[in-house]
Amino acid sequence: MTQTFKSKTLAASLALLLGVVGAHRFYLKGWRDTLGWLHVALFALGVWGAARFIDFGVDDFIARVALPWLGLIVGLALFQAILIGLTPDARWDATRNAGAGRRTSSGWGAVLVVIFALLIGTAALMGGLAFGLQQVFQPR
Question: DSSP letters along the chain, please?
Answer without folding.
Answer: -------HHHHHHHHHHHGGGTHHHHHHH-TT-HHHHHHHHHHHHHHHHHHHHHHH-TT-HHHHHHHHHHHHHHHHHHHHHHHHHHS-HHHHHHHH-TTTS-----THHHHHHHHHHHHHHHHHHHHHHHHHHHHHHS--
